[in-house]
Amino acid sequence: MLALEALSVYYGGIHALRGIDIEVDDGKIITLIGANGAGKSTMLNCIAGLVRSSSGKVLWNGEDLSVRETKDIVAAGVVLVPEGRHIFPNLSVDENVLLGAYYRKDKQKIKQDRERCFDLFPRLKERLRQSAGTLSGGEQQMLAVARGLMASPKLLMLDEPSLGLAPLISKMIFDILREINKNGTTILLIEQNAHAALEIADYAYVLETGVITMANTGAALLNDDGVRKAYLGEG
Asked: Rounded to whole angstroms, how far apart are CA atoms 75 and 226?
């Protein structure tokens, strides 16, 4: 289980996260919604070790990750699929996928996970030798998720996986996230499409200017009048 305890982060003079407490239970899909600039990406980057906290703890099965390097956090099973995909455009699809397993030594399991990725993303299998930079936006997002899966995560964090994608492709991505979760991977999701995110979430948090203001099941927040008005464009 992941738990953030009184987590605070400063960017210069900006207090980006203000004493955050959240829990991500094993086997669940947890989503975080909020306006741009609320601190959502900062939280994921802090968990991944890309941003250092000012105070508080990032506990992963009781161990504080906030003092560890990103590569050690990945090795512990906590993996981030960043906003903007950040694939390697000049490498092939297959090379990008295999780079996700860079720190792994279990060759047989790597081979199995590679096949599993291509089962989840058959479009990528059709484009194994193609340069990643020539893929469509949706295919690049699939590639970013596949690369994350190759690190063998116990917790997969995704930052805006449907950003800029057509609705049909977005739905496909969310269906695949459900499948990944069904296979045993815990998911922590930031998503600008709050409706889609809450629909698949077991539990959700609302972040406003660095503070958690609401927390409930995805279904409950989906039906909350305040959330519907502020984040779902209703009411």
From this structure: 40
Calculate the average pLDDT of the chain: 94
| CATH class for the domain made up of 1-77+156-235 | alpha beta
All residues at 6 or more sequence positions from 53 whose CB lies less than 8 Å from its CB, including other chains: 7, 8, 9, 17, 46, 66
Cβ neighbours, 10 Å, residue 159: 23
In Å, how far are 80, 102, 134, 179 from 130, measured between CA atoms? 24, 20, 7, 26
List the domain boundaries for the chain: 1-77+156-235, 80-152
Question: For residue range 144-184, what is the model confidence (pLDDT) as tens digits?
Answer: 999 999 999 999 999 999 988 999 999 999 999 999 999 99
Distance from C-alpha of 90 to C-alpha of 130, rounded to nearest angstrom: 9
Per 3-state DSSP, the chain is made up of helix, strand and coil in percentages (nearest 5) of 40, 25, 35
Convert the pLDDT of each residue in 77-125 to its tens digit. Answer: 999 999 988 999 999 999 999 999 998 999 999 999 999 999 999 999 9
pLDDT of 235 above 60: no
Pick the closest to residue 34 from 233, 234, 231 (CA basis): 231
SS3 69: coil
CA-closest candidate to residue 1, choices 25, 33, 17, 21: 25
Give the whole-number percent of the chain exceeding pLDDT 70: 100
Distance of alpha carbon 31 from the chain centroid: 9
Cβ atoms < 10 Å from Cβ of 111: 11
CB 76 within 8 A of CB 67: no
